[in-house]
Write a structure and sequence with these properties.
The complex is a heterodimer of chains A (313) and B (295). With 313 residues, chain A is mainly α. Chain A contains 15 helices and no strands. In chain A, helix 6 (82-113) runs parallel beside helix 10. Helix content of chain B is 73%, strand content 0%. In chain B, helix 5 runs parallel beside helix 8 and helix 8 (157-182) packs antiparallel against helix 11 (211-227). The two termini of chain B are 27 Å apart. The chains are: A mainly alpha (313), B mainly alpha (295). At the A-B interface, helix 1, helix 2, helix 3, helix 6 and helix 7 of A face helix 1, helix 5, helix 6, helix 7 and helix 8 of B.
Chain lengths: 313, 295
């Protein structure tokens, strides 16, 4: 069978001086650049991060080029570090808030821009992509200006409409700081979720709604029993993708709070970054903490591949 | 189509205004913040609009610190990174353009094999790509830093391009493969009957037909590379290799830089990607939805 296909594939090439590759080999050759790049930048580093997490790697070891084996020391140190546990807890809180808010807002806004007869909905539809175009670090800095205690834009607006009489320290108060950084993140990543829901809404015909309306169903009943069940697959996609990305939030934290005030907004990615790339440059522990993050996200990825990606169309 | 009631219409308009205000708020803030001086911003801490407008923030950034204008006349210290705005801008363009080009080239070669020459391992490759998309950059950065350090790729634009290309390649293949699968096989087959090799048929027939897919994938890859902070932040420490996001991040801890100058440089950094996204809106929308679910 394979020799037959091979012979068939070679036939047209016999006319030219070059022999054509069999499809099997052509597929391999065409994937060489991808294999090389992915091995260098993705596969090997993921293996190597695991390796580093079981070794002692600091400035001295980097200079010498020898990393002594440390067993589970780095991981045990993590479990002993209240800051790491706090960072994990903050990451879970941050992810829970941003993802649930995004799913609810995405459905609401997607339904809103789906209203053909409302002209303001068309304006909104043009604007929803805007946050996607803003660099995350610029977004963070803009919101740090918005939140500034003394000079902030948000306080200025609230003063002007008479909502407050004293300035509010949005991102500087340990009680509110973590919630404050969720808003810029939601703002920046919402377009993606809205787009997916909006695309899914286009696939739901108006017939079902019209039939239900004739039978006397209210707007809410129609949403609850027709739209929502049909949106479920895309909502699962959004849930899994957004959760795994929110787990790695970094830029907004760097720009707005740098983990502060105190350690109120330390999150997982910030912990790994500070451990590995700020004095005393403990790359071993940094890798171990990054690996914990990778395992959580990896579990989500497997759920996505196994149950979500193939089922949705 | 079901028509909303008059009261419903008013509520929908109000809801739209609320959403529009939410989306525009940071854009208004960055614009107003960038067209005034430190003095006006500090003089009245409760007014939305400044008493006086100035373009000096942009002037000092775009002239590389040469023209200080009225606002910065007395200023003796300006961060070096702000003076190197053009350099950072050029680095950002070089990185984003090269990464887009490389990712599209490598990505279409792979996506074609996934869509057309289906083997068991190409299906695995696709699954691996979907999993790879979930890997957070921070997880890659620590081992990449150590590896690139020993390969002497730290402090170079090339290192950043290699790292970003590898990071974005799986996503690009996920977006491109459904596009290639949607192009009719028959066109390629008739070219092959005319004596075209399979690879030439891919280059001359399939690739041109995949242009919308390449555009959708290209604009998304360009935007992500233009925005990326962590890779150049960790791989490069010298000012001459910094990209715009790194320059912006370097201002975060600088107590001598006030909001106005920061807002001006943020506005300059976000303009290119905003223009690109608004111009190529259709492709961005297509690419994002195809990349999330199989087309």
């Amino acid at each position: 069978m394979s020799s037959m296909t091979a012979a068939k594939d070679r036939a047209p090439a016999a006319r030219s001086w070059r022999r054509e590759l069999s499809p099997r080999n052509l597929a391999l050759v065409m994937n060489v650049p991808t294999f090389v790049t992915i091995c260098l930048v993705l596969a090997y580093p993921i293996y190597y991060a695991g390796y580093l997490s079981f070794h002692r790697v600091g400035v001295a070891q980097l200079r010498k080029g020898e990393f002594p084996f440390a067993g589970l020391d780095n991981y045990l140190r993590l479990l002993d570090d209240p800051l790491f546990l706090l960072a994990l807890k903050n990451t879970f809180v941050f992810t829970f808030i941003t993802v649930s808010a995004e799913v609810v807002l995405a459905v609401a806004i997607a339904l809103l821009i789906n209203q053909q007869s409302i002209w303001t909905s068309r304006v909104t539809r043009v604007l929803i992509l805007l946050p996607y175009a803003i660099p995350p670090i610029a977004n963070g800095l803009i919101w740090s200006f918005m939140y500034s205690f003394q000079f902030g834009f948000l306080n200025r607006i609230l003063f002007s409409i008479g909502a407050i009489s004293e300035p509010i320290n949005w991102a500087g108060d340990p009680e509110t700081a973590l919630y404050a950084v969720t808003v810029p993140y939601i703002w920046r990543t919402l377009p993606f979720a809205i787009l997916l829901v909006h695309a899914a809404l286009q696939g739901i015909g108006t017939e079902l709604h019209e039939a239900a309306a004739v039978d006397g169903a209210t707007v809410w009943q129609r949403f609850r029993h027709i739209t929502l069940p049909l949106l479920r697959p895309i909502l699962v996609v959004i849930l899994v993708l957004r959760t795994s990305f929110a787990f790695a939030v970094f830029e907004e934290i760097l720009a707005i709070t740098q983990g502060g005030p105190g350690d109120a907004t330390w999150v997982a990615a910030w912990y790994s970054y500070k451990k590995a790339f700020a004095p005393p440059f403990d790359i071993g522990t940094g890798s171990a903490s990054a690996y914990v993050l990778a395992l959580i996200v990896g579990a989500l990825a497997l759920v996505y591949v196994r149950f979500v990606y193939r089922r949705v169309q | 189509m079901l028509k909303p009631t008059p009261l419903g219409r008013i509520l929908l308009h109000l809801a739209n205004l609320l959403v529009i205000a939410f989306f525009l708020l940071p854009i208004i803030a960055v614009t107003i913040g960038s067209v005034q001086s430190e003095k006006t911003l500090q003089a009245d801490t409760r007014a939305i609009l400044p008493a006086e407008y100035t373009l000096d923030n942009f002037r000092v950034i775009l002239s590389g610190g040469e023209q200080k204008g009225k606002v910065f006349e007395q200023v003796t210290y300006l961060p070096d990174n702000i003076k190197k705005f053009y350099h950072a801008f050029a680095n950002s363009v070089i990185v984003a353009v090269s990464v887009t080009f490389l990712t599209l080239a490598f990505g279409s070669l792979s996506a074609y094999t996934v869509a057309r020459l289906q083997y068991r391992w190409t299906a695995w490759l696709m699954t691996a790509n979907v999993v790879a998309r979930f890997v957070p950059i921070i997880v890659l950065m620590i081992p990449l830093y150590v590896t690139f350090r020993s390969l002497d790729l730290l402090n170079s634009v090339v290192g950043v391009i290699i790292a970003l290309t590898g990071f974005l390649l799986p996503y690009a293949i996920i977006i491109l493969a459904p596009y290639f699968a949607s192009i009719p096989k028959e066109l390629e087959e008739s070219a092959r009957i005319d004596g075209c090799s399979r690879f030439m048929a891919f280059l001359r027939i399939t690739m041109p037909l995949a242009t919308p897919g390449l555009a959708a994938c290209g604009v998304i890859v360009f935007i992500i590379s233009w925005h990326d902070l962590l890779i150049p932040l960790i791989l490069n420490s010298k000012a001459e290799f910094m990209t715009l996001p790194v320059v912006i991040a370097s201002l975060v801890g600088d107590v001598h830089v006030f909001f106005n100058l920061m807002m001006a440089i943020c506005l300059l950094a976000l303009l290119p990607s905003v223009i690109l996204v608004l111009l190529l809106q259709k492709f961005v929308v297509q690419g994002l939805s195809v990349g999330a679910v199989k087309g």
